[in-house]
Amino acid sequence: MAERKIKCVLDEKALHTVMLDPDKCVGCVTCMKRCPTEAIRVRGGKASVAYERCIGCGECVRLCRHHAKLPAHDSWDTLGDFRYKIVLPPPSLYGQFNNLEDIDIVLNGLLAIGFDEVYEVGQAAEYVTDATKTLMQYGGIESPIISTACPAVVELIMMRYHNLAGHLLNTLAPVDAAAKLAREAAIARGIPAEDIGVYFISPCPAKVFALKMGFGVERPYVDRVLSVSDAYMRLVPAMAALTDIKKMSKMSSTGLSWGISRGEANATEELKTIAADGIEQCVAILEALEDGGMQDIKFIELNACVSGCVGGVMNVENPFVARSRLHYLTRKLKNAPNRMDDIGKTADYFLWEHDPTLKDVFKLDDNRLAAMAKMIEMDSIFETLPKVDCGLCGAPSCSAFAEDLVNGVIPHDTKCPRLGENKEGGK
Ligand code: SF4
Ligand code: SF4
Question: What is the three-state SS of 267-335?
């Protein structure tokens, strides 16, 4: 196999989810206040990200009106890295194009812009749905089952909701299933393994990160992860110039619906399901579940982005417009979804190859006694703070400021700027 290099557009050494353009950052703290894992600090007038806490949800990219935060992904130049290029278009891609009447126009367009083969992620999503139904029938996963299709949500659970890890659906993400199936089929047709490069066109930074790291798999199935926006710019003229549209799509309306919130939950045909979208709603559902609620629910679909994957920050279209287009396009596709039987597979083929590891990113110290001492110190510092979470100190909350002090992230004698203002007779 060819060496699988990790390449990001903005930083080839570090694998980061989001990058900062320091020249554009004005230190307004908007991103810091909305990061769901308190991963951002603004010190010296510039934002920085503690990447071990970043779940790649893209909120900071979405909210920065100065365009200082950028999602990391592979450059289009990486198309030269392999002789035989397989591309995996996600369902959300089809929602980007105005007046699209036929998904095959996009698939033919992908061949026109340099790929040798297309495998629809929506088709693989239908096999994953079939496997999910089998797993729901035979049990073994704590109920309610939580979908693992959104890597930002899974990262959040692995970081902050350790008690819920047993609820995670242990199937491959549709994109991994698509990459695995497409690569195997190409090798079976005699294409040398080292010539094959599998490219995903991603709507969000969370999927870039998950695919680079290989979530639930022994090694990444996808070689390069491009952005929907880069693909869109090349596809629009290529699609307009097509003279012959070959029939290519094998996906049904079920697979296409995975691109929008509730698509996966509905596909299970289970009646007691929840589908929530937007990171704040996802957090609310996870909190309620951790508190012991939702006992009668069987399946929970959570998407960090509003409206589902069509809301990813690497798309070009408004999520609600893209969502409407996918609804329209589902009516043009066949209704009968692809089944595992059709390709001679069983649910085993679509299972995780290993369980993901819980992340202890919020612990104060590796040593338990030291961690307890820091917790006590943190609590006593917190009691002296105004508890208004103003962000003036460069931390998103008073508790985060206290945490930064005990962890030595900022000098131990750093004072709360708000208290200083009060002492001087300020607000
Ligand atoms: S939102 Fe964050 S990255 Fe954007 S300018 Fe404000 S502090 Fe900087
Ligand atoms: S991508 Fe999400 S988790 Fe990561 S820094 Fe931005 S807001 Fe925080």
Answer: HCCCCCEEEEECHHHHHHHHHHHHCCCCCCCCEEEEECCCCCHHHCCCCCCCHHHHHHHHHHHHCCCCC
* CATH code 1.10.15.40 for 369-423: yes
pLDDT of 420: 67
Q: What is the DSSP string of 75-127?
A: -GGGGGG-SEEEEE--GGGGGGSTT---HHHHHHHHHHTT-SEE--HHHHHHH
Give the residue whose CA is nearest to atom 5 of ligand 2.
Answer: 54
Ligand 1 atom closest to 20 (CA): 3
- Break the chain into its structural domains and give their ranges: 18-71, 76-350, 369-423
Query: pTM of the predicted model, to two decimals?
Result: 0.92
Q: Give residue-wise pLDDT tens across range 207-236.
A: 999 999 888 899 899 999 999 999 999 999
Residue 178 CB–ligand 1 contact under 6 Å: no
| CATH for 18-71, options being 3.40.47.10, 3.30.70.20, 3.30.365.10, 3.40.190.80 | 3.30.70.20
